[in-house]
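Input chain follows. Return structure tokens only.
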Amino acid sequence: MARSRYMVGLVFLVFFVMSLLTNILGPIVPDIINSFKVSLTAAALLPFSFFIAYGVVSIPAGFWVERYSEKPVMMAAFVAGTLGSLSFALYPAYFVAIFSLFVMGAGMATLQVAVNPLLRVAGGEEEFAFNSAFAQLIFGSASFASPRIYSYLVENLGDRSKARNPLLRLLGSITPPSLPWASMYWIFAVCTLLMIVVLFFTHFPKVERKEDERAGSSQMYRELLRKPIVWFFFLAVFAYVGSEQGTANWMSEFLSKYHGYDPHTAGATAVSWFWGLLTAGCFIGMLLLKIFDSRYVLIGTCLGALLCLTAALFGPANVSVIAFPAIGLFASVMWPILVSLGLNSVSEHHGSFAGILSTGIMGGAVVPVIIGRIGDHFGLRAGVAFLYVTFACVLSVGFWAKPLISNATVSFKKTEVQPG
């Protein structure tokens, strides 16, 4: 089949929009608390509603894609994103936000299942590793940009000196003055709507899914779920995504509450740098994985993340505002290591196992709620300290994992010259 640069570019665009919608939750948590006058637990229910959709939808999405093909499923996913965004943009209320984020999360979970096989076919198997890495770079760039767009809108909406800006003037006319941050959802609605139009006019290649990309049968899932190692890796992925989202969702509120930083500027910037460093760290991680066993890399990065977490929780303001984003640098390689160790620890049904691991993304729903619940009773510092537990779960994998195949590393041993 002929390769398609256009289709590869389209997949990269899908990754960008997915990230734009997914990683805005951290910066808006302080706004949710202040605007709707809710508890920390209630605020955490919003990221919960988004990420729990991954647990509900990830496995069914695999069956949908196999039955209906990529194009209609991806269009339906963006329709969900549009409806979710518009519902909150038009009716910005707390309970509407819970519904809208669940619908948006379901759409993003479905896209995540559909795009990787499409990228392999459109770009060619020989370029798949490179294109996948580049897609993660695109995903990270949107994660870096999203909080900055939020910060720009919140700072400038309602500013009369910016009245000539047509975008600000339009958003200001349709967004409640007391909720300038809700304008982000109009941006999301436009982005997802444009994606529907682009997909409608795009001709999709036929995707023959490889064995490790297939959803699998119910019998395969039952066989896998009888194996303790599958549950261990599911819990490890659950703990990692919980650590990632728990950090991103609560750092802005923590910096505001304990150090007086403005969540619209310094808080949003900290979240932006967290995602930026999480992306940049992938390149360092790729180098480390060519030198060391992935289990050792996982242990080292977990210890680094725990040190940064300690500095963020108990250090002074100027240390905390740097240490929180620095956690992202160490967390950057945890996801690919956990997935590769998991898949390399079973000899069959890799597609079904990948679906189970993807379901573990709902850790991003549960852990922020636990942090909020603890925070309501014992203070937010005690709540965020729960991340010691989740990072420790990830750290443990480096000690008990026994993959059937280890990652390839470069040997630095000198080659002995045989006498002639």
